[in-house]
Amino acid sequence: MSPAQSPFELFGIDALLTEEERDIRSAVKTVVDSQIRPHIAQWYESGELPARELAKELGKVGLLGMHLEGYGCAGTSSTAYGIACLELEAGDSGVRSLVSVQGSLAMFAIHHFGSDEQKDAWLPRMATGEAIGCFGLTEPDFGSNPAGMRTRARRDGDDWVLDGTKMWITNGSIADVAVVWANTDEEEGSRGIRGFVVPTSTPGFSAPKITGKMSLRASVTSELVLDGVRLPASAMLPTARGLGGPLSCLTEARFGIIFGALGAARDCLETAISYAGARQVFDRPIAGFQLTQAKLADMSLELGKGMLLALHLGRAKDEGRLQPEQVSLGKLNNVRESIAIARECRTILGANGISGEYPVMRHAANLESVLTYEGTSEVHQLVIGQALTGVSAFRG
Q1: Is there a catalytic annotation at residue 117?
Q2: Minimal CB count within 10 Å: which of 28, 61, 129, 187?
Q3: In this structure, is residue 325 part of a structural domain?
Q4: Which of 106, 132, 158 is the last residue before a domain boundary?
Q5: Domain span including residue 307
Q6: Where are the alpha helices (DSSP H) in the chain?
């Protein structure tokens, strides 16, 4: 028998990574193995995540806003951030979501569009996990079409007063600060959309937790309710005007998903390979059956191709060449293939595949949410279609 290889070894992935990227991968894997894997099955079953405590642990090793510059952030490459997302999601999609929303949505919005005062007030504490952020864009009736948002910000003297509701907001009920997008009606259409930095202690702000989830159970998901939330003029993000502001933040978060989803798929595949080598059927391990090997080969092929795509897009981002439609390519392909891998791995584990003793069904259920958030597969297909044809089909 020849020595067994892991899927990424088969593709020679290590040779494509820098020494710094391999070191970051190792450091994040150590955190996941020590802080997350021993507890994640129980967190998932109970539907509870000690997010504030976990954020501080992740902050200690520089994972929060790690690809941002200054304010206590590590300033790593985008590719290194993607690799960190992969290792985090190998633990659980909910944990990667905590880091993504903190760093690529809330912190990125303040870092990219905020005033010096806003940056100084929030970013250092968010980088350490002392302060938690959330990102309020999606509404109950406006997910894929954020331009139709009903949340309004109206002038009252020098202040702004916000009213509206946001839905499916990760970190919402534990957040110290919310980046909330609202229509100011200052200009016709989506140009009137502006972002506001909202301390969650502000009167009129509430964030009831969403319960009863069958996916991303180890994640804090909330509704945001803004009922006459009064903010000073300085709360507005000064350089974000129109829908381009929040969409650029979503593009940043989607990039992490391109890598992250592969972490869940890799964990499923490694579990299936290990299980297949130990599980005896008809007096031999199922790893020795042709149908099992065909499944493992096909899944490894898609996982490796997804990783090559992720690295290619990561290098493009680090060089300033990455386009939003290319992020759509990566998110569409890698999440779609990852969920297919998780489902196929479940078949190799048989009935054990639905047990919480193994991570496969948990990853499969989580990936159902990853398939939807930060742009559904259908939205990304239309983004790619528009890039190919030059014709928008969003209103067709």
Answers
A1: no
A2: 187
A3: yes
A4: 132
A5: 245-389
A6: 7-10, 19-31, 40-46, 51-60, 78-91, 93-100, 108-113, 116-128, 244-278, 290-318, 324-349, 360-372, 377-389
